[in-house]
Specification:
The structure holds two protein chains of two kinds.
Chain A lengths: L1 E10 L2 E11 L4 E6 L5 H9 L3 E8 L2 E2 L5 H6 L2 E4 L11 H8 L10 H7 L1 H5 L10 H13 L5 E5 L7 H14 L6 E5 L3 H6 L3 E6 L2 E7 L5 H9 L6
Parallel strand pairs in A: 3-8, 3-9, 6-7, 7-8
Antiparallel strand pairs in A: 1-2, 1-4, 4-5, 9-10
Chain B lengths: L1 H30 L6 H18 L4 H22 L10 H22 L15 E4 L2 E4 H23 L1 H11 L11 H26 L7 H15 L4 H21 L6 H13 L12
Antiparallel strand pairs in B: 1-2
Classes of the chains: A alpha/beta, B mainly alpha.
Chain lengths: ~230, ~290
């Protein structure tokens, strides 16, 4: 499970996250909702060690405080970053294989990832930069899965994709949801889609928790108000 | 046959030039910084070999191997302990750091070896020649040329087909993201600097076998290395080979036609390339 206590994130003098606490149980998916600049990506980066952060993060009981991104990756933190961040000169297969660099045991391998995203098997030897946006997004997710993560962080996986492609990506994520003990955090702008793909949700506003709750039967209007910071949000 | 003769000796010299450029190109490609100490790495490596061969009486091949291993270690250690500390999105601090290192290494060499001309004596091989279809070619330049080509091919293969090579290419693409792949960027940078220093040392050693060097030869070597990678195309390995060969041929032709010109026509070639094809012979226009 994932436990974050009083998590704050800083970029230089700028503070992007203020004392955010939450926990996610094994096998659960948490949707992170919020407007641009609400601190969603900062929260993920502070879990990865990619920005200066204070507070305590525990993954499966292990304290991550002070560890480098590489050390966290070895403990099973995997990120599918915003903007996909392909290794542009590597082939699709190399991009996937480099995700398995930490050699963690688990169900994910080149063959199981290409079962989930068959197009990646077909394009395995193409340079990743020649793929379409949706295919690159699949590579980014596949690369994160290859690490057999204990904590899978998915940043804006549907951003900039055609609706039908976004649906395809979300459907693939739905297939693997809840199948293992892996904790998933899904950053998503679209409230309806976020709630539909998660067990619980957490809505951020200006770096603080505005609203949190169960996704099933969640009041979308209340989330919408929290999203925009309107009065009587809760 | 004078024309063929000139072109062949130009190409052979170009192989050596290309080797000077190779290490610099590797650094630029992976770390996006210019290593001003590259020339001193080359000359320092040659002095390491001269010191072990001359003063300790070691056989030449052992001296060369030792100098290469030591150069790798020195490059690795300098990157890990000093240059990595100033690596950031701004290339200036790292550039100044390597500039400082070049001065330190140069003065250290003067202190240890004096300012005399020195060379690596390899015996009768230095003057041996073979007949290549009517053109007499030195065995040593030919062997150096073959070794340079072999190293280009090896480096290309390692980068393309090994796990370490893949990790280096990924670091070149997106150094901020390789940490999430469990890779330590600082160690990859150090590894690349070590390889670059060893390649530079080998080029310096070859130079000391062909001619002579002083502790001040580094600056001139750096200039040649820069010209090679700019003519060839920044950050491209095969571009460095092409750039080296082009520069070598131009130098030799110019010296035959105009013996007092020195490196002038090499510089003019650089200017012409910058004007007509700024991305270099094998370069691609920068994307992103």
């Amino acid at each position: 499970m994932l436990e974050a206590r009083e998590l704050s994130a800083f970029y230089g003098d700028f503070q992007a996250l203020f004392d955010v606490s939450f926990s996610v149980a094994q096998g659960e998916t948490l949707a992170l909702i919020g407007a641009n600049g609400a601190g969603k990506t900062s929260l993920l980066h502070s879990l990865c060690g990619l920005c200066t952060a204070s507070g305590v993060v525990r993954v499966g009981g292990t304290d991550l405080t002070g560890l480098t991104p590489a050390q966290r990756a070895a403990l099973g933190v995997a990120l599918s970053p915003e903007g996909r961040r392909m290794f542009a000169s590597l082939t699709v297969r190399e991009n996937l294989e480099i995700g398995a660099n930490t050699a963690r045991p688990g169900p994910w391998s080149l063959s199981s990832v290409t079962d989930l995203f068959p197009i990646l098997g077909e394009f395995a030897d193409r340079p990743a930069r020649l793929l379409s946006g949706g295919q690159q997004q699949m590579v980014a997710i596949g690369r994160a899965l290859m690490a057999n993560p204990a904590l899978l962080l998915l940043d804006e996986v549907s951003l900039g994709l055609a609706p039908v492609v976004a649906q395809e990506v979300m459907a693939a994520l739905g297939q693997i949801r809840g199948e293992s003990a892996m904790v998933t955090i899904l950053v998503e702008q679209d409230i309806r889609r976020a709630v539909g793909a998660s067990d619980r949700f957490l809505c951020l506003l200006e770096g603080r928790v505005a609203l949190t709750g169960q996704s099933e039967g969640a009041d979308l209007d209340a989330i919408g108000r929290a999203y925009f910071g309107e009065e009587n949000a809760a | 046959m004078i024309a063929v003769d000139v072109i062949i000796s130009g190409l052979l010299l170009g192989g050596l030039y290309a080797l000077f450029g190779l290490g610099l190109s590797l650094i630029f490609g992976v770390m996006k910084i210019a290593n001003i100490a590259h020339g001193e790495f080359a000359i320092g490596g040659a002095f390491l070999a001269i010191a072990t061969a001359l003063f300790m009486g070691a056989p030449i091949w052992i001296a060369v191997m030792l100098a290469l291993v030591l150069s790798f270690g020195i490059g690795f250690a300098l990157q890990l302990t000093l240059i990595n500390r100033v690596m950031s999105d701004d290339p200036m601090p790292a550039l100044l750091m390597t500039f400082g290192l070049s001065i330190v290494i140069q003065n250290l060499l003067v202190e240890l070896f004096g300012a005399d001309n020195r060379s690596l004596d390899i015996g009768p091989l230095a003057t041996a020649g073979v007949d290549l279809g009517g053109v007499s070619v030195g065995v040593l330049p030919l062997a150096m040329f073959a070794l340079a080509i072999g190293l280009f091919a090896t480096l290309h293969w390692v980068l393309k087909h090994t796990k370490a090579g893949r990790n280096v290419r990924a670091t070149s693409d997106d150094p901020d993201m390789v940490g999430m792949m469990g890779l330590d960027r600082a160690r990859i940078f150090a590894l690349v600097m070590g390889i670059s220093a060893a390649l530079a040392a080998l080029a310096g050693i070859m130079l000391a076998m062909r001619g002579s060097i002083t502790p001040f030869s580094g600056a001139e070597r750096l200039l040649i290395a820069f010209e090679v990678i700019v003519i060839g195309g920044l950050g491209s390995i095969w571009g460095s080979l092409l750039g080296g060969l082009a520069l070598g041929v131009v130098h030799v032709i110019a010296l035959r036609l105009d013996p007092s010109s020195g490196p002038l026509y090499g510089h003019l070639l650089l200017l012409a390339i910058l004007l007509l094809r700024p991305e270099g012979l094998a370069g691609r226009v920068a994307q992103r």
